[in-house]
Amino acid sequence: MGFSAHYECFQGCSTDHYSLDDVIYRCPKCGSLLDVTHDMGALQGFDPETWKGLFDQRMRRNSWPYGSGVWGFKEWVLPQIPNEHVVSMYEGHSNLFWAERFGKEQLGMDDLWVKLCGNSHTGSFKDLGMTVLVSQVNHMRKIGVPLAAVGCASTGDTSAALAAYCAAADIPSVVFLPSGKISVAQLVQPLANGATVLSLDTDFDGCMDLIKQVVDQYPVYLANSMNSLRLEGQKTVAFEIVQQFDWEVPDWVIVPGGNLGNIYAIGKGFMMMKELGVIDRLPRLVCAQAHNANPLYRAYKAGWDNFAPLTAQKTFASAIQIGNPVSIHRAIRSLTACDGIVEEATEEELMDAAARGDRTGMFNCPHTGVALAALIKLREQNVIGPKDRTVVVSTAHGLKFTGSKAAYHAGELAQIGANYSNPPIDLPADAGQVIDTLKERFSL
Question: CA 427, CA 108: separation in Å to the nearest integer?
């Protein structure tokens, strides 16, 4: 239908276009990050009802590749790639969980939802972006672009997604990990999928600096979120949320933020739908950061022009333990457009919030705990009202973080009160003592 997309300078220093088939990450003129830009005039050739009907018809079907929650929106994501070059595991379509008990009993809210993006192939939202990036790399290799491998710096989830999708496409992958700073569950995923894993004596920001040096000198394609291809997949979270609400817009969307590509991507998705007339308003966005890695929060409190990178301190929300986020300016654009705010959570607040959610049927990762803690604060301040339809984006599956969750319930986390812990009860194998214990805990 003539739909197309290309790279442009995010800061708009020129109107130059760059092909998605080029190995390029920054504007050659000003050094800014690039952004994937669509031919909106062509997309506007379809009216909103036609788009909604097309996407509803494809949802969860088996016609390749449109049954994917990402590729069902192919025209809005990566329109030019041949279908046979797509690398997909039918990612997306994650559950929009009605958090009824947590909302009503703990926050006085009737309309609270959690978008379970961790219910995906590798257990995190990163699959949504990686299917797009690896598909484009697969296409580039098919047309003769010399790429030896795809690489990323990661604190866990990005490396898992990269390794899995590259394995599916038979493309070599290399992962730069900060030594001793990710969970065993996260480390084993890229190992199992055959990635070359480099465990480096630095933090995430150090890994990021190193891989940027490497890709400048060796034909490894960069898969971190400074590469805007991944954000095209991640923006489908916004599409799915609206589609799951029968094309209605929620009032609030709360997103954990580390490198900040996700908050930009989700905002970009909402803005795209509004420009195409599919929705008539934007939700308000909240970016939730861990107190130990909160450069965006500090910039928000001081005024956006006062951003300064910092050295992130250790946090249980390890995937967002980032002090110098690549997508800082992109995040600010989405937050500004969506009347957004930034909130933070201490280590105790995020672990308690995750545990409170778990008590009502969830099984949260620490990053979701950051978002839930932000929600709790904003409800206490009545910034988010009791009737506001609110969506918390859960970015990873709790099973990736069983170590910290088990230690929380065992009371083994230093300087964490663990106010909602639920430790096991040690008893002899005696029915009488078991019954006495149950009588103390349960009432008829």
Answer: 38
Structure-token pair, residue 213: 């040096």
Contacts of 4 (CB under 8 A, 6+ apart): 38, 39, 42, 79, 80
The band of 192, judged by pLDDT with boundaries at 50, 70 and 90, is very high
- Predicted confidence at residue 164, as pLDDT, reads 97
CATH class assigned to 96-123+231-404: alpha beta
Q: Which two tokens stand for residue 349?
A: 């607040």
φ and ψ of 338, to 5 deg: -105, 25
Provide the pLDDT for residue 155: 73
> Residue 74: left (phi > 0), alpha (psi -120 to 50), or beta?
alpha
Cα separation, 362 vs 424, whole angstroms: 19
What residues contact residue 380 under an 8 Å CB cut-off, 6+ apart? none
Angstrom distance (rounded) from CA 295 to CA 274: 29
Share of the chain above pLDDT 70, in %: 100
Encode the chain in three state secondary structure.
CCCCEEEEECCCCCCCCECCCCCCCECCCCCCEEEEEECHHHHCCCCHHHHHHHHHHHCCCCCCCCCCCCHHHHHHHCCCCCHHHCCCCCCCCCCEEECHHHHHHHHCCCCEEEEECCCCCCCECHHHHHHHHHHHHHHHHHCCCCCCEEEEECCCHHHHHHHHHHHHHCCCEEEEEECCCCCHHHHHHHHHCCCEEEEECCCHHHHHHHHHHHHHHCCEEECCCCCCHHHHHHCHHHHHHHHHCCCCCCCEEEEECCCCHHHHHHHHHHHHHHHCCCCCCCCEEEEEEEHHHCHHHHHHHHCHHHCCCCCCCCCCCHHHCCCCCCCHHHHHHHHHHCCCEEEEECHHHHHHHHHHHHCCCCCECHHHHHHHHHHHHHHHCCCCCCCCCEEEEECEEHHHHHHHHHHHHCCCCCCCCCCCCCCCCCCCCCHHHHHHHHHHHCCC
As to burial, measured by CB atoms within 10 angstroms (0-12 exposed, 13-18 middle, 19+ buried), residue 352 is: buried
184 has pLDDT over 80: no
Domain ranges of the chain: 96-123+231-404
- In contact, 325 and 259? CB cutoff 8 Å: yes
84 pLDDT higher than 80:
yes
pLDDT of 298 > 80? The answer is yes
Q: What CA–CA distance (Å, rounded) separates 302 from 252?
A: 23
Residue 56 CA to residue 77 CA, distance in Å, equals: 16
What's this model's pTM, rounded to 2 decimal places?
0.94
